[in-house]
Automatic annotation (TrEMBL):
<dbReference type="InterPro" id="IPR001584">
    <property type="entry name" value="Integrase_cat-core"/>
</dbReference>
<feature type="domain" description="Integrase catalytic">
    <location>
        <begin position="2"/>
        <end position="59"/>
    </location>
</feature>
<dbReference type="GO" id="GO:0003676">
    <property type="term" value="F:nucleic acid binding"/>
</dbReference>
<dbReference type="InterPro" id="IPR012337">
    <property type="entry name" value="RNaseH-like_sf"/>
</dbReference>
<dbReference type="Pfam" id="PF00665">
    <property type="entry name" value="rve"/>
</dbReference>
<protein>
    <submittedName>
        <fullName>Tra5 protein</fullName>
    </submittedName>
</protein>
<comment type="function">
    <text>Involved in the transposition of the insertion sequence.</text>
</comment>
<dbReference type="GO" id="GO:0015074">
    <property type="term" value="P:DNA integration"/>
</dbReference>
<dbReference type="InterPro" id="IPR036397">
    <property type="entry name" value="RNaseH_sf"/>
</dbReference>
Length: 65
């Protein structure tokens, strides 16, 4: 647990989800557009793990349409 989000924390959390569900399950990772989510660390990891990334449109934090 950390007091703030950074790219490594996000990656580690996604890895934990992958470990729980295994590589055979499709995972959709939805987030905001913060730098911790758009970083190379996270985007490259998602590509390597075939995890689909989805991001909210700017200005719609917390709003799912």
């Amino acid at each position: 647990m950390d007091t703030h989000q950074d790219a490594q924390l996000v990656k580690d959390t996604i890895q934990q989800i992958r470990n729980v569900y295994g590589s055979h399950k499709k995972i959709l990772f939805h987030s905001g557009q913060g730098s911790q989510f758009t970083s190379y660390t996270v985007t490259d990891f998602c590509k390597q793990q075939t995890i689909q990334q989805s991001m909210s449109a700017k200005g719609t934090v917390g709003i799912m349409l």
